[in-house]
Hints:
The protein has 187 residues and is mainly alpha-helical. Helices cover 56% and strands 0% of the residues. The chain contains 6 helices and no strands.
Amino acid sequence: MSDENGTPDTPAGSRDTEGTPDTQGTPTGRPAMSTGPRPEPLRFFGTTWVDHADGYTARRVAVAVGAFAATVVSCLVLRFAYQGLAIADIGSFVTLLVVIMFAICSALAFRHTWDGFGKRPDPDRQASLRGLLAIGFVGSLVAYFFRALTEAPGEKLHREEYEAALKQHDKRVSRRTGNPSKKRRRG
Length: 187
């Protein structure tokens, strides 16, 4: 599982080789075989992002409202921290440095989170930015809120990967139709 968003580390459309064929079918109407591509679940959405069913819109609204509420609460916590610095009378220079640090880290976290919705982040870079992203958590929450207004966060990336995996799978399956031993030999 990925640490930052709770999704598996395997890309969308990866094969699940265990189990038996699913006779119920997939949300897209394709029969799901144990060797075929499967959509990667998103946090809070599962695989409802594939066909926007099972309360997808309600979940998106709930995620947007939740991210907004978490942003407001986080800003209140930061406000209390700022008041604590003012009460401690540590000086305006240190207070200014703390405010600038949170602003810069939040901006960088917003950008990193927003870019992560469009492409898979490099795990090494992600690990090196972990502290910065923790300090700039408000930026990540704001990015999550804005993305949830238009789609499930990460849906575009997962949809592209899943559709590419479906095309590749369909191409492989269509090449293997029929029994090769019964083919006529030319000659």
